[in-house]
Design brief:
The protein is α/β, with parallel strands linked by helices. It is 36% helix and 20% strand. Strands 7, 8, 9, 10, 11, 14, 15, 16 and 18 form a nine-stranded mixed sheet that branches. Strands 1-6-5-2-4-3 form a six-stranded mixed sheet, with helices on both faces. Helix 3 runs parallel beside helix 4, helix 4 packs parallel to helix 5 and helix 10 packs parallel to helix 13. It binds ligand BES and zinc ion (ZN) (2 copies). Ligand BES binds next to loops.
Length: 484
């Protein structure tokens, strides 16, 4: 996407955002004067409600007025432009102008141009990857931004993050017969080539040599082998290392503790944590942030088979701790246990953060609007919460109190993977993971089961949201600025 900055729109298609604030009338007034439009007509029909689109014709140009709502928040601006672009992209032609002169953007702590461009790019996503009669849905190649003091760099970041998020949509929406652990491994390799990231992958035999017994146990019933991917981005100068871990279950049948078939197709999204982490490291590398990132992605299918682990089986793990597998559907915590322990021991990260579609229970607690976050580190919690509010990818804290350790006690092994009680399952899953972080002082677990794959205006069935890419990228940007 070609980005330019100008003082007046030169394209036949223009989008003009407006905030629904006390200044909306005077902003619309100045806009109507410049574009020679009838202010009373515009005022009557356009209220700048979030995502409202009002079409006008001005001297042969198509003008879209776009409502942002009453809050100048980065995430809300992205959402409004995403929605607008998704619905109207067939009218864009080869270039569109975005006129930012009628939103007061001087004092905002974020970049309007970045948010607008990010949203526009997201709306160009085509979910119909497997349709045989593919139609060209958009020809847009250039975005022109109109306004004073706009930043080319920020706009480029908006394009970059948007493109990475689209790739993450594609990963998560891809059917599991295509996205095997090997396929995701090749995908990780391809981003490493484009963005100067060091790539290492361990196949099944190498995982055995490393001692990733819990990952191998989950994968033992699958026709496709597990894989363990490590990506490392190290800039020339940095002070902090951040370890990221993403759950990469390419399909979760539940295993022998099989899931009900209604909605089981959604379990192709059980690698959304892995996808978010791959997206985040790619963004950090492309933005060349001064922070070192090591991403660990355990990949496997959780299949039903005569070779699958059975409920009651005892397995080993990277740390050597033995685990009684009460429920084979609680597989995410098993593969994360190995990945967290491996990353922690071998890279000693200053921060350790995992993202996982881990439990149905977090959906019971927080619904589809926020992920659950678990950490005993207040600074890390507040950093993630701040990035969550700014990006619209919200997190809300849940506890890690020691009372919940009771749920993990096994008679026959060091611990069990499920309490066998239908209460507090998001918390006991987090307590399970905590054991394998070996008391890391800055670890956070983010349970994204409710937010990674959602209903919405962009698809008729649930589809990928890209949750986590922006959250992590914003958090890491802030971290690299404060820790530089
Ligand atoms: N992948 C699921 C969690 C999930 C549920 C993700 C709904 C997205 C939407 C996970 O592996 C799982 O099955 N968890 C079980 C754990 C239980 C058996 C302890 C759950 O939450 O029901
Ligand atoms: Zn499961
Ligand atoms: Zn799962």
């Amino acid at each position: 996407m070609d980005i330019t900055i100008a003082q007046a729109p030169s394209n036949g298609c223009v989008v003009v955002p407006f905030l629904k604030t006390s200044k909306v009338v005077s902003n619309l007034q100045s806009f109507c004067e410049v574009y020679h439009l009838d202010i009373s007509f515009v005022n009557k029909h356009f209220k700048a409600e979030a995502k409202q689109v009002f079409l006008q014709d001005s001297e042969g140009k198509v003008i879209f007025l776009l409502g942002i709502g009453n809050e100048a928040n980065f995430g809300k601006i992205v959402k409004a432009f995403h929605s607008f672009s998704h619905k109207n992209k067939t009218h864009f032609g080869e270039a569109i102008s975005v006129d930012l002169r009628y939103v007061e953007h001087g004092a905002d702590p974020f970049s309007w141009e970045e948010a607008a461009v990010n949203g526009l790019v997201l709306g160009l996503y085509d979910i119909g990857a497997f349709k045989s009669d593919k139609q060209e849905i958009s020809h847009i190649q250039a975005i022109e931004l109109i306004g004073e003091g706009l930043s080319q760099t920020n706009s480029q970041i908006g394009v970059m993050v948007g493109n990475v998020q689209k790739a993450v949509f594609d990963l998560v929406n891809k059917p599991s017969n295509y996205k095997t652990p090997q396929w995701v491994t090749s995908y990780a390799q391809s981003i490493s080539k484009e963005a100067s990231i060091k790539f290492t992958a361990f196949d099944k035999k190498e995982c055995l040599d490393l001692g990733l017994h819990a990952l191998l146990a989950v994968g033992q019933g699958s026709p496709v082998d597990p894989s363990f991917v490590l990506l490392e981005y190290a800039p020339d100068t940095y002070t902090k290392t951040v370890g990221l871990v993403g759950k990469g279950v390419t399909f979760d049948t539940g295993g022998v503790s099989i899931k009900p078939s209604t909605n089981m197709h959604m379990m192709k999204s059980d690698m959304a944590g892995a996808a978010a982490v791959l997206g985040a490291i790619e963004c950090v590398a492309r933005a060349k942030l001064p922070i070192r990132i090591v991403a660990a992605v355990p990949l496997t299918e959780n299949s039903v088979d005569a070779n699958s682990i059975r409920p009651g089986d005892v397995i080993s793990s990277y740390l050597g701790k033995t685990i009684e597998v009460i429920d084979t559907d609680a597989e995410g915590r098993l593969i994360l246990a190995d990945a967290l322990a491996y990353l922690n021991r071998n890279f000693k990260p200053d921060y350790l953060v995992d993202l996982a579609t881990l439990t149905g229970a977090v959906i019971q607690a927080l619904g589809y609007h926020a992920a659950g976050v678990f950490s005993t580190n207040e600074q890390l919690l507040s950093g993630l919460a701040k990035a969550g509010v700014a990006s619209g990818e919200k997190v809300w804290p849940l506890p890690l109190w020691s009372e919940y350790e009771e749920d993990l006690k096994s008679d026959v092994a060091d611990l069990r993977n499920y309490s066998n009680k239908p209460v507090a399952n998001a918390i006991s899953a987090a307590k399970f993971l905590e054991v394998f972080t070996e008391a890391h002082p800055a670890w956070a677990h983010i349970d994204i089961a409710g937010v990674a794959f959602a209903d919405g205006e962009f698809s008729s069935m649930r589809s990928a949201t890209g949750y986590g890419v922006r959250l992590l990228f914003d958090w890491l940007t802030n971290l690299s600025e404060s820790e530089g």
